Amino acid sequence: MEDYTLANLPISRSAEDIVYKRDIHIWTDGSAQDNGSDICTAGSAWVSNLQFTDKVMLTGAVLSNNVAEVAAIILCLMAWRDAHITIHTDSMFVLGLLKGGLLAMERDGWGDTPRHMSCGPPTPLLQYLLYLLRDRTGRISLLKAKAHGDDLNNNIADRLANEG
Length: 164
Known about the structure:
Elements: E1 11-12, E2 24-33, E3 41-48, E4 53-58, H1 65-79, E5 85-89, H2 92-107, H3 123-135, E6 140-144, H4 152-163
Parallel strand pairs: 1-6, 2-5, 5-6
Antiparallel strand pairs: 2-3, 3-4
Helix pairs in contact: 1-3
């Protein structure tokens, strides 16, 4: 089997494309109401195929859907540090970060705030995500999930994120 680095994490488009059959599968989601405003409320969640889940309500700085999506990935990585995991996400923003966006921001000195994170300076959150990715001992694969489709675990993650 091939080992993957952060720069070449595989993104599959369907469950049939999953490279590692013995991975733990985790569905992540983030949600925000009143996106980007001072009264925004947000939640993040993950659900595993082992029937473990976690969710949090986010508070503090101005929040957005993308901040909540990133927080869901961070929660997942913190919980499953040493396991071989396949992360299912419906966030194209997160997939872009994990497929090279984080490395590009680091290379460029973290100067540009991604336009999709309208929450003020996201640098510490994104730097922590990159740290967690680099610190992992387990392998990561990515799978694009269809938002609000017929994927039961993705829908549970969505519901939990909305509950925050």
